[in-house]
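Quick illustration, no need to memorize.
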Amino acid sequence: MRYWLLTTLLLLGLTPSFAQNQPSVQGDKAAAAIARAVAFLGGDRYLQVTSQVGKGSFSSLRKGGVANYQSFSDAIIFPDKERTDFKGSSRSVQVNVGDTGWIWDGEQDVVKAQLPAQIDNFKRGIRTSLDNLLRGYWKGQAQLSYVGRRQGGIGKRNDVLKLTYADGFMVEYEIADDGSPVKSSYSHVNVGDEQVKDEDRYAQFVDVNGVKVPFIIDHYLDGEAVSRINYESIELNKRIPDSVFAKPSSSKEAKKTVTY
C-alpha cells in the first residue's frame, strides 16, 4: 500500500558522480521513462502527495483461490510511516516508523515490538515501492540504471529501470509506453533460506483528485500469485496526527478505535 518528481535531473537525483558512472544515453532513457510515469500518475499533483489514507481488503491466495480474507484500513505519511488496522475474525494492528515498529495481536491480546525481520520486510517494501523510484527517495542510497526493453504483452514492450543499493539489493521496475507503471521485481531469502523472486504488479488505476492510484496490487512469488491488495477508497493529503503511530501502553489502549 504505498507512495509515489521539478526538472527531470532533480527528480532522478542525477548528481555529478552518477553522471560520470553512467552513459548519458542510459540516463536520458531512464529520465524519459520516469518523467512519462510521473505524467501518467498526475504530474505535479502526484508530486505534491504527502499522505494517504485507504480502506480495502487483503487476500491471501493459494493455487488460484482465496485462502484468507481480511478488510483493512491504513494510513501512510511518506516516506516511512505506516499504520495498518486489520479487521476480520480477529483484529490486529501493525505500525512502522522508520527503523522502529510495533504490533497489537488481537488473538493473543498483546502489544509487542516488531522483530528485526518484520522491520526489514517493511524497509524492503519502501525500497521496492513506486514512490521510492519516482519521488527519488533512493538518492544517496542506490544507483539508477536503464536495463532496456522487455516484452510486456502481445505487441507491447516496457522500459526496464533498475536500482542497485550499496548492500547489493536490486529492484527492477517496468514502465509501459503510455507511462503506466506495470510491476516491480526483486528477490529475497525466505525462512527456508531459499532465494525467491518477488513481483508486485499494479492494476486498476483510479483517478483520485487528479492523481492516479493503483487500486489493485498483486504479489507473486516465483511466478505464483500469493496475495492481493484491493483498495475500495483512498484519500490523499489528509492530515494524520502523530498519535496514530504511537505505541499504546497496554492492550486495553490498543483496542480503542483510532480515527484517521
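The helical segments are 8-12, 16-21, 24-41, 44-47, 116-127, 130-134, 251-254.
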